[in-house]
Amino acid sequence: MRLDSLPRTLRQKASLAFILVVLLAIGNVSIVQFLLRESDGVAATLNVAGKMRMLSQRIGLEALVAHQHPDLPDPALADLPSLFEAAHDTLRRGGHAFGLDIAPVPEALASQLRAVGLAWTRYRIAVDALAVASAGDRTAVADLARTGADLLARTEALMDGLVVQARMVQQRTLYGAYALFALDLMLLALAGWVVFRRILRPIRDLVKQCRALAAGDYAARSALPPGDELGELGRVLNDSAAHIEQLLRDIEREHAALAEAQAMFNGLSDNTVAGIYMADENLRFIHANARMAEILGYPQAELAAGLPFDRVFVGPAYEVARAQALERLSGRTARTRYECVARRRDGDPIELEIFGSLMSLHGRPTLIGIMFDITERKRAEASARRAALVYAHTSEAMVVTDANGVIQDINPAFTAVTGYGAEDVVGRTMAVLSSGRHDKDFYRAMWARLRETGRWSGDIHNRRKSGEEYVERLSINTSYNQDGSVNCRIGLFSDVTEKRRREASIWHQAHYDHLTQLPNRQMFQENLRRSIEHTRQGGLPFALAFLDLDLFKEVNDTLGHDAGDQLLRLVARRLGECVRNSDMVARLGGDEFTLIVRDIRNPDDVLPLCGKVLESLAQPYALGDSVARISASMGVAFYPRDGDSASELLRAADLAMYAAKEHGRNQCLVYEAGMRGPAHVRADPQSG
After folding, report:
1. In 3D, which of 566, 528, 570, 533 has the Cα closest to residue 546?
2. What is the pLDDT of residue 234?
3. How far is CA 128 from CA 78, 131, 145, 298, 510, in A?
4. Which of 5, 117, 168, 389 has the fewest C-beta atoms under 10 angstroms from its C-beta?
5. Residue 38 and residue 135: Cα distance in Å, rounded?
6. Cis? peptide before 7, omega within 30° of 0
7. Which residue in 684, 672, 515 sits closest to 586, CA to CA?
8. DSSP 336-362
9. What is the DSSP letter of 435?
10. Can you tell me the distance from the alpha carbon of 633 to that of 506, in angstroms, rounded to the nearest whole number?
11. How far is the C-alpha of 533 from the C-alpha of 40, rounded, in Å?
12. pTM (2 decimals)?
């Protein structure tokens, strides 16, 4: 229906709204009655099914009582089966039962109803058989119980189906109520929309127009269509406003141009960034805004009172300012830009950037322009130039990346260290230098530290463009924007490959025996302490074996020190071949060696290793043209069983070793408490 076909007068509109409300109420009542009737019919069907279940149980109970007590009065069973069958027939065909109007059960439940009828037939036969059976006939009672249970189960199944059907009806009823409610809302919304569109909005537009006219807005118009009372009122208001607006339009047009020009100049002059000035043809200031007064350090009134140029621009700066002003006054140029050094009222110099043009004021040529204080910018530019010199000439490599590690810039030292030029790496990540020596966890920890603190420093193994690996000492710092986001990251690094090699060589010399390249006494003591700490923190026990070569002095005296040194190197090699990678072999000095065997679950597990060591060391040694034979005596102690500290444990192993020597050499003994007797006391083995 089109809007223009709706009733035109307010009375017609009100009548239409009343009719719609009445029709809506009648429709709601009709739909609710229909939904209630459907729900009541399902409830009645379910009630009849329940009465059938009760009748079946009562029939069986009374038949059983009559069988067991034949002398009791007849319970008159004849009526109950008829009631059951009548109810069953009503559910099948529909009709009236137990005072209720019943509709036929749905087609979906017809099979279950037929199953109830069949079960009832069997049950009825069992009841009749029980009635003529002799007292104490258990077979008839059992048949009654079996067929009764089957009938009860079929009836229950039918009721379950009816319950499901009832729930579906309830669901449809609920959905119908929802749909009815939604329809009501839609109709009410439609009615409200029509009322709003045809009555309220026109009234609101008229009120808005009246308020606008009262406030002096005579350009306000209503767009109400003609044809009803509200449209006619809108037309009258529009005509009245048009007459008043025409009277004021000419006055407003005259003031508009002047107000616009004044507003533009005031807005420009009141800024806090640029100084605004005007000067006459005699090079005297006739206007200055507050920012210009702040820049030059003069009171604003003193500047605007005709302060001459030569008070602000001194020496060569005045000549530049005068020449630029004359160029504009003569008409040779319309606008100009230049930089010069001015002098503040307190005598301090100030760097200025000036933009100027020419205008006419009261019929006279007038200079107008803006000036900016660029002192800090000049200082920043000078600082940037110095920083660029440092960036370009420092011997330390520098790289600038974005927040994600993408390279933005490098300095020449970067190329000198890595071999990569800017064209090779800009736009790529630092992974271009990766040597593959560091795993993902290393870089994950680095980035976590950078995101947390903005800083990271450490050694990294990288690869030059030539493929050569090198070690760099890298320091990364982060530059942030004012909002806290990352502006860039700056990395500084230098090649410390040779330095780290020297440090590694010095460390190796301090911790390893120069003859056998085994860990020395200092390295042994550190590993022993770490093993003790590992066990204390929950690790498995470990064994310490103290080993002394038998007959080594004779080889040294007979074949010479060079042969003795060669023998020690061969002993070290054989010891290393006998132990696991997790174990440690060390030379304490002379012909004394130690083994740290970690993660021992059973002390007996060490004995095969000790046997392997003794057997290996007892094999012949080819020393040049000579062959030497030696053996070894070993003592073993276990932590924490045989000592609570490094010194106690080492002394226990040493005592066990000397006990092995006293028992004939070339054997291994495990420390026992009795070995601490006076016969075995000697100097502390840690003292060397």
Report:
1. 528
2. 66
3. 11, 5, 13, 129, 112
4. 5
5. 50
6. no
7. 515
8. EEEEEEEE-TTS-EEEEEEEEEEEEET
9. -
10. 33
11. 84
12. 0.41
Range 566-575 average pLDDT: 93
What pLDDT, on a 0 to 100 scale, did the predictor assign at position 406?
93
Where does residue 504 rank: exposed (0-12), middle (13-18), buried (19+ CB within 10 A)?
exposed
Query: CA dihedral defined by 162, 163, 168, 170, rounded to 10 degrees?
Result: 120
Give CA–CA dist 395/509, Å, rounded. Answer: 32
Hunting for tokens 């034949």 — which residue is that? Answer: 70
Burial pattern 531-544, b for ≥16 Cβ within 10 A else e, equals bbeebeeeeebbbb
Higher pLDDT, 55 or 285: 285
Which residue in 350, 333, 332 sits closest to 341, CA to CA? Answer: 350
Cα–Cα dist 595/582, whole Å: 11
- Six-digit token pair at 41? 């019919």
Q: In sequence order, what are the beta bridge partners of 618?
A: none
Cα-based angle 552, 554, 556 (whole degrees, multiple of 5): 70
Distance, in Å, from the CA atom of 248 to the CA atom of 213, rounded to the nearest integer, reads 13
Residue type at position 129: A
pLDDT, one tens digit per residue, over 353-370 is 898 888 888 888 888 888
Q: Return all residues near 156 (Cβ < 8 A) that are at least 6 apart.
A: 53
| pLDDT confidence tier of residue 298, bands split at 50, 70 and 90 | very high
Residue with tokens 């806290």: 484
Burial status of residue 134 (CB atoms within 10 A of its CB: 0-12, 13-18, 19 or more):
exposed
Question: Rounded to whole angstroms, how far apart are CA atoms 129 and 139?
Answer: 10
Which structure tokens are listed for 566?
Answer: 């060669």
| pLDDT of 257 | 66
- Neighbour count for residue 88 (Cβ, 10 Å): 22
Q: Are strands 631-639 and 668-670 parallel, antiparallel or unpaired?
A: parallel
The helix (H) or strand (E) run that includes residue 515 is none
